[in-house]
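Supplementary Note 3. Input sequence used for the single-chain structure prediction.
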Amino acid sequence: MIPLGDTAVDLARIQFATTSLYHFLFVPLTLGLAPLVAVMQTLWHRTGDEAWLRLTKFFGTLLLINFAIGVATGLVQEFQFGMNWSVYSEYVGDVFGAPLAIEGLAAFFLESTFLGLWIFGWNRLSPRVHLATIWLAALGTWLSAYFILVANSWMQHPTGYTVSNGKAELTSVWDLLTAKWAIWAFGHTMLAAVTTGSAVVFGVACWHLARGRNQELFLRAAKLGLIVLVPVSAVNLWFGSNFGILVTEQQPMKIAATEALWDTEQPASFSIFQIGGFTQDDPTPSFSIEVPRLLSFLATGSFNGEVEGMNELQKQEEAQYGPGDYIPPVRSVYWSMRVMAYLGSLVFLVAVIGAFLYRRQRLERTRWFLWAGVATIAFPFLAALAGWVLTEVGRQPWIVFGLLRTADASSPSVGTWTIGTSLAVFAGLYGALAVVDFVLMRRYARLDPPEVGGDEEGAAPALGY
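The predicted structure, written as discrete structure tokens, is reproduced below.
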């Protein structure tokens, strides 16, 4: 029989994972689409070409829908810290609360205030001031992301703190804000976000081109999407692989789990695909396709580097932290890493082919590829979700690495019935919101961009149809 406390912890983890992953469906699109909409408006402002104004309002509408639902789903997460994870909140509140407070009081107000001015400032603010509002709103979204990632990165690799009276206390704001993990996580997340935004712009343009609608207009959108998507998706693949070197230094168990590597190897191979080998009772895969020395390069930067196995790391962590199981769920970590990497590579491949076809002036006539571009819209979202599963599940059993275990961090007074009921309510509510978001995004993405001229230039994007 499973102890009641363990069951409550499991339900609390499922609830937080559900709300976090659902919320993160909206985050990368907001972060990536906001600067692209700002670029479109900048091009209109500098050239006077009304095509860019139409595209600004068209994609601005999608941005606003995504932003609104993203804000609503994000608020739920913070309440869970106090309700389901009170021990965690009390232990890390002095540290974890600082970047979250900065995000809420400064960055979020920056983005929401200037986004509001952008929505209602058409034909009311001067063109330059109005253009500045969308850029400042985009800046606010990026600042919000940075402070949130600072908080999460502290959970991955605590720094700038001391433990006093059974609680973590902040000793250096500078160390907290400039932690190496936070900087790398921010770079990787922003590159993934811009990849997402440009993939959506390109994919929506492909849909209209495949339907033969507004060809000239959406060729411009497709060109902008490709100009951004090709280099950014390429750089993100490089950035992510180099991020793995830092993870190897600070969380070697996570890297070993991504490869289902039980014993230390030098050099270490990377398995493209394997069957079995995910448990200590069955450590040898029955089938595996491997690339020699690639894991050594990804984990250490050297094709001859040593990668420690989970068995050796388990002994080290037992000696350092005491008895316990320090091996994360290997199967989940292994496959989430590959979903993230493979889909990211596929996005880059689609972008390169799209750029080739555009340069040859064949993009709008290659229907099979246009529909492939539409399907590619989903890939960055799925890759981002897999990345977060890798990040959070790979850290287990720690909620704060090396300081506090997940099993010890939940609220002792909250039982399984309470969490189970709220989980069911959230699942139903989020399911309804998912339907609403899909219907709205699909509806407005399928419409023709609004005509401009006269009083219509003063309409807010969402009201311009």
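Confidence is low (pLDDT under 50) at residues 1-5, 454-460. The longest strand covers residues 270-275.
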